[in-house]
């Protein structure tokens, strides 16, 4: 992974005092946020291939003290990531950089990559996590200097499930490993009614509870779920909720 980052044609860096000031600002800001919430995050420095800051209690530190990732840099991934998933990280790293560097410089901080992979926990066993990465700072030429990474609960039960999501256009791109590229996903919008039902289901509410909240019958809830499955190409409510999260539905249509 480290060798590829150094060799990427867009990664050309110079050392500037303002870069250090910017990095310190990011670290201080993330430290404050971690004190106010349970965020699990860290800052990567692509210029030095190092972990610049890791929030206390991060999953990255469950099986090692913070000095270890600081000493190993990006090679630390080899120590904690499942071997099969490490190969995936190499692919997603390469393809992700290509995707962002094909964007205009002004848009490169407007998106993020999300995917699942397995890392070691404190017992030495692998657990699956979701990983989001977004550029924090660019050089004047557009090279990514720092990025923010956030770890959270996985979006599915298996590794992969990788997407790029652009916040400025709300477009979603799915990673196709066999083609080594991201392809735009055509989002099937749901009606306000169906979207509301799916949100209740994602909160763990059962059909009877949803019926009471929406003031409809249980049979109507079942009918609406069937419609959701047909529109989203899913087989059950768990898959539909995952689909909703992956596609980042924002603006449901007005028709039922």
From TrEMBL:
<protein>
    <submittedName>
        <fullName>Regulatory protein, luxR family</fullName>
    </submittedName>
</protein>
<dbReference type="GO" id="GO:0003677">
    <property type="term" value="F:DNA binding"/>
</dbReference>
<dbReference type="InterPro" id="IPR000792">
    <property type="entry name" value="Tscrpt_reg_LuxR_C"/>
</dbReference>
<feature type="domain" description="HTH luxR-type">
    <location>
        <begin position="183"/>
        <end position="248"/>
    </location>
</feature>
<keyword id="KW-0238">DNA-binding</keyword>
<keyword id="KW-0805">Transcription regulation</keyword>
<dbReference type="Pfam" id="PF00196">
    <property type="entry name" value="GerE"/>
</dbReference>
<keyword id="KW-0804">Transcription</keyword>
<dbReference type="InterPro" id="IPR036388">
    <property type="entry name" value="WH-like_DNA-bd_sf"/>
</dbReference>
<dbReference type="InterPro" id="IPR016032">
    <property type="entry name" value="Sig_transdc_resp-reg_C-effctor"/>
</dbReference>
<dbReference type="GO" id="GO:0006355">
    <property type="term" value="P:regulation of DNA-templated transcription"/>
</dbReference>
